[in-house]
């Protein structure tokens, strides 16, 4: 009888212990769930607080930019100083165009012109690009960051005077109101281009038909909507309707260019957006099909210093002589060499007075070595054009 009582007591104690352990585990689990919930609520509260703070800053900014409820002195100060808006780039362009010279004057005129827009993950989450690949084209808003007057415009705006008229290439030097042109030298150096969306990968977008130079800061991306962006019956001035105003007569590739391009291609093919040297050659032909020389180069192609010089457009001119004192009128088809930088390759060519081009040589640029870029190999599996 005593043994049975002892056994019963031991069983009761074991059950009580197990119950205590179970209760402890349940309590621990509940505590962990509560702790997790508390962290979630804290994160949500922090996000809500930051959103509210951002809205307050936005309201303060709008209030500061508004002339309402300001004193007369404040209104005078505000009227004398330009309004500004906080704005920062959301990404950067990796383009086949290394310099301004050779970059198309308008989008879509060079269908093979490709670029990758690399968005900043800290500013633009990958989810923000969801659905963009379903559009055929998009708008790119960006900064003309290579403008020669940009530093003066931002650092000393009092000295930066708006040029009301600019020279237009199609008018052969004739001037037109800046707001009636696509000139990059604008009241604010903001560009707007349409491009074909080829593929989207994470924070990167592959575009074609671009007129964007490498390193361009991107401000925004918007989808192209044919029903609203394509205006039926839109009119343009007569001077824009001149056919072939900037077109060249013919393009010929020398044997030396083809062999030198083959040598260069061995070094750049792993970081290029083009599948082969032949496709790159097609790009060169499309780019040079439009006369990319500056206005001064087209008007006076032989009036250059005998030594190598660089014009404002970034095109290097070499007249092939060595004596600085020996100046003469020379045939531009034999003495003026122009340079085009594409995909880390320096393409040199000559153009005669009848707009016939001979592409002569390809040389590797030092800046093309060891660049880390999205390439043909990166996009090959994601887009049909490659």
Automatic annotation (TrEMBL):
<dbReference type="Pfam" id="PF01980">
    <property type="entry name" value="TrmO_N"/>
</dbReference>
<feature type="region of interest" description="Disordered">
    <location>
        <begin position="57"/>
        <end position="83"/>
    </location>
</feature>
<dbReference type="InterPro" id="IPR036414">
    <property type="entry name" value="YaeB_N_sf"/>
</dbReference>
<feature type="domain" description="TsaA-like">
    <location>
        <begin position="87"/>
        <end position="233"/>
    </location>
</feature>
<comment type="similarity">
    <text>Belongs to the tRNA methyltransferase O family.</text>
</comment>
<dbReference type="InterPro" id="IPR040372">
    <property type="entry name" value="YaeB-like"/>
</dbReference>
<protein>
    <recommendedName>
        <fullName>TsaA-like domain-containing protein</fullName>
    </recommendedName>
</protein>
<dbReference type="InterPro" id="IPR036413">
    <property type="entry name" value="YaeB-like_sf"/>
</dbReference>
<dbReference type="InterPro" id="IPR023370">
    <property type="entry name" value="TrmO-like_N"/>
</dbReference>
<keyword id="KW-0949">S-adenosyl-L-methionine</keyword>
């Amino acid at each position: 009888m005593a043994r049975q009582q002892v056994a019963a007591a031991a069983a009761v104690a074991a059950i009580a212990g197990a119950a205590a352990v179970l209760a402890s585990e349940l309590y621990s689990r509940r505590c962990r769930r509560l702790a997790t919930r508390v962290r979630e609520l804290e994160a949500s509260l922090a996000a809500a607080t930051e959103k509210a703070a951002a809205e307050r800053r936005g309201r303060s900014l709008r209030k500061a930019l508004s002339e309402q409820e300001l004193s007369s002195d404040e209104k005078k100060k505000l009227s004398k100083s330009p309004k500004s808006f906080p704005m920062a780039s959301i990404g950067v362009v990796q383009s086949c165009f290394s310099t301004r010279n050779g970059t198309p004057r308008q989008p879509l005129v060079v269908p093979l012109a490709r670029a990758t827009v690399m968005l900043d993950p800290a500013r633009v989450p990958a989810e923000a690009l969801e659905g963009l690949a379903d559009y055929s084209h998009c708008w790119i808003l960006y900064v003309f960051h290579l403008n020669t007057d940009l530093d003066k415009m931002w650092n000393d705006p009092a000295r930066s005077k708006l040029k009301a008229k600019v020279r237009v290439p199609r008018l052969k030097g004739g001037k037109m109101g800046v707001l009636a042109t696509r000139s990059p030298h604008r009241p604010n150096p903001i560009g707007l281009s349409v491009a074909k969306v080829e593929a989207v990968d994470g924070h990167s977008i592959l575009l074609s038909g671009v007129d964007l130079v490498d390193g361009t800061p991107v401000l925004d991306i918007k989808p192209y909507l044919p029903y609203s962006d394509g205006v039926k019956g839109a009119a343009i001035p007569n001077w824009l309707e001149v056919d072939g105003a900037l077109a060249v007569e013919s393009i010929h590739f020398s044997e030396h260019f083809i062999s030198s391009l083959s040598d260069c291609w061995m070094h750049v093919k792993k970081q290029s957006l083009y599948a082969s040297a032949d496709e790159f050659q097609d790009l060169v032909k499309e780019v040079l099909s439009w006369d990319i020389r500056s206005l001064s180069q087209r008007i006076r192609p032989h009036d250059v210093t005998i030594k190598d010089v660089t014009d404002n457009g970034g095109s290097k001119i070499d007249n092939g002589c060595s004596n600085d004192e020996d100046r003469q009128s020379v045939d531009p088809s034999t003495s003026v060499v122009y340079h085009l930088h594409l995909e880390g390759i320096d393409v040199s060519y000559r153009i005669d007075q009848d707009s016939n081009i001979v592409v002569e040589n390809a040389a590797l640029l030092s800046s093309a070595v060891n660049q880390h870029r999205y390439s043909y190999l990166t996009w090959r599996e994601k887009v049909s054009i490659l």
